[in-house]
Amino acid sequence: xxxxxxxxxxxILISPSAERDLKRLEKTNKTVFQSIDKSxxxxxxxxxxxxxxxxxxxxxxxxxxxxxxxxxVDDGKRHVIIYRVxxxxxxxxx
Length: 94
Known about the structure:
Blueprint: E1 11-14, H1 16-28, H2 30-45, E2 53-54, E3 59-64, E4 67-74, E5 79-87
Parallel strand pairs: 1-5
Antiparallel strand pairs: 2-3, 3-4, 4-5
């Protein structure tokens, strides 16, 4: 018989820039905001789900439709730090 895997969650931390991104999105497109909100919550259970792309040492990109969620994972502290949530055409512009 297989043992059940213990589920330990990560805390989600939102940077000020990602918070602004989310507030702007909530005002302009509630449907997309709700989808992204669910994706962010899912990262607390599985910070490296199938389909994500590594974009640095501990940085990742998760696709959600036309939007991208950029985040870092701190396994030691068990944190997922969301630092940008933008449309794919704007996410990498500075």
